[in-house]
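Quarterly update from the structural biology core.
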Amino acid sequence: MVLPIVVYGDPVLRKVCEDIDKNHEGLEQLIQDMFETMYNANGVGLAAPQVGKAIRLFVIDTKPFTESDDDDDDEFTPEQKKELKVFKKVFINARILDEEGEEWKFSEGCLSIPKIREDVLRKPNIEIEYYDEKFVKHTEKYDGVIARVIQHEYDHIEGILFTDKVGAFKRKMISGKLNDIASGKIGADYKVKVYRAKR
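Predicted structure, tokenized:
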């Protein structure tokens, strides 16, 4: 089932999410729905708070990075494309143990912040501990674009958005657009949910 994606302004996007266990109610269905929701919105990652759940869960499938219609798209090497084409994972109760290397810039967007993209600096190498959908524990190292996608989704379960990582000048430049998203004036071509404070 395609779920509505909550957009900028919803307090759930600012929560540090909670760990879950393998008996978490409806977990298998939620994972399935999150992948379906992500594909419907042409995303490469989706975190549980983006569908209104403050739990430490995110899903990633980087295949869309390799499906550009642009013939002269040389953003990725053949080796990177091969890796991105098959990288699909579920991360539960993730903890980034280490981030290292020289920060590099990459243009990021977010399904919860439609129609805004900005360059974000992140370290290229990470080590992460997490459980998969069968609750098997893994400790793995990633680099490059895959590490970046993981870092972006990991930020979501820590209550951090990519716009928090741009410079003060850029933040000021996009503040009007962010307010328009929060008030429902900027929509998306997928199902979204705008936060309405209870009175």
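The two ends are 30 Å apart (CA to CA).
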